[in-house]
Design a protein that fits this description.
Its EC number is 3.2.1.8. Keywords: Carbohydrate metabolism, Glycosidase, Hydrolase, Polysaccharide degradation, Signal, Xylan degradation. It catalyses: Endohydrolysis of (1->4)-beta-D-xylosidic linkages in xylans. This is Beta-xylanase. This protein is of the alpha/beta class and 303 residues long. The chain contains 12 helices and 9 strands. Helix 6 runs parallel beside helix 8 and helix 11 packs parallel to helix 12. The chain is globular and about 55 Å long. The mean pLDDT is 98. The structure holds ligand G3I. The site of ligand G3I has 8 residues, from loops.
């Protein structure tokens, strides 16, 4: 039998997982990580509260551990995330002056991307900036409220200058169902960026699903975004109760869209999950493969 990563690689895709630095010392954990996965997203270590806890004072130690591990094991890295309203230190969320906030945001992006230059396959430049209220508009956040809707464009332009070789992604949840207002809002933003030459290379669909898995329109959504000229990626996959059918439907949708370049599950074992009570992952808490593992392997074209 192969592995998730090797099977995904047969079609030029990667298969990744979220990794917390604190588990890299657990050999049962890293045994599965290095056997099965060829891409890694730091679960928390690249977020602003860890990387710049006070202004101009950067801490890359925890994320460096993860990047070193990935380098040593030939795993590609997704950088997560540069600009997000959550896990944001209060010294940032309390800024009220636009020039100050713009300078702080741009410096954060530039410094973090410079530190990892050449080591990151794709960055989630902006995470979860759209509202869940059915408006299709950006959510309230210090970035939106102080800088206006243009903050996302500013972030992507700054990111392109910082590491021109990295793919620049917009990442969000609840944008998997095509007709949802939130999906349409993000689609219009990407369409606008593409038409005006604002640098954007990919859209990440987090894909935190309930027990029934992806919506019926999931593949349509992935294909419609890809048709704008961006890659699409499944970036934080987990499915309540991990039904094999729900996982297969998710992977099949990606396999049917040529610009769907990779899939990341948000953790390895159920016990590693942020929603562990729902047993949403591909390995049980003892590290054994679950039924969904076989369904994913088959959908990736393996046996
Ligand atoms: O680091 C502290 C630790 O010192 C303390 O003892 C402990 C007590 O609760 O908390 C620790 O921080 C926690 C951190 O995870 C590290 O374990 C935070 O409380 C907790 O809120 C944080 O949760 C993370 C969550 O993002 C925060 O929003 C999850 O691990 C992480 O899986 C989750 O990931 C997000 C993606 O980044 C974006 N999309 C949604 C996804 C799931 O919420």
């Amino acid at each position: 039998a192969g592995s998730l990563g090797a099977t995904a690689a047969q079609s030029g895709r990667y298969f990744g997982t979220a990794v917390p630095a604190g588990k890299l010392g657990d050999s049962a954990y890293t045994g599965i990580l290095d056997r099965e996965f060829n891409a890694i997203t730091p679960e928390n270590e690249m977020k602003w509260d860890t990387t710049e806890p006070s202004r101009g004072s950067f801490n890359f130690g925890p994320a460096d551990q993860i990047v070193s591990h990935a380098t040593a094991h030939g795993q590609r890295m997704r950088g997560h995330t540069l600009v997000w309203h959550s896990q944001l230190p209060s010294w940032v969320s309390s800024i009220t002056d636009a020039n100050t906030l713009r300078s702080v945001m741009d410096n954060h992006i530039t410094t973090e991307m410079a530190h990892y230059k050449g080591k990151i396959y794709a960055w989630d430049v902006v995470n979860e900036a759209f509202a869940d209220d059915g408006s299709g508009q950006q959510r309230s956040s210090v970035f939106h409220n102080v800088l206006g809707t243009g903050f996302i464009e500013e972030a992507f332009r700054t990111a392109r200058a910082a590491d021109p070789a990295a793919k620049l992604c917009y990442n969000d949840y609840n944008i998997e169902n095509w007709t949802d207002a939130k999906t349409q809002g993000v689609y219009r933003m990407v369409q606008d960026f593409r038409s005006r030459g604002v640098p954007i290379d990919c859209v990440g669909f987090q894909s935190h699903f309930g027990s029934s898995g992806p919506p019926a329109s999931y593949q349509t959504t992935l294909a419609n975004f890809a048709a704008l000229g961006v890659d699409v990626q499944i970036t934080e996959l987990d499915i309540a109760q991990a039904s094999p059918t729900a996982y297969a439907n998710t992977v099949n949708a990606c396999m049917n869209v040529s610009r769907c370049t990779g899939i990341t599950t948000w953790g390895i074992r159920d016990s590693d999950s942020w929603r562990s009570s729902e047993n949403p992952l591909l390995f049980d808490s003892n590290g054994n493969k679950k039924a969904a593992y076989g369904a994913v392997t088959a959908a990736l074209g393996g046996s």
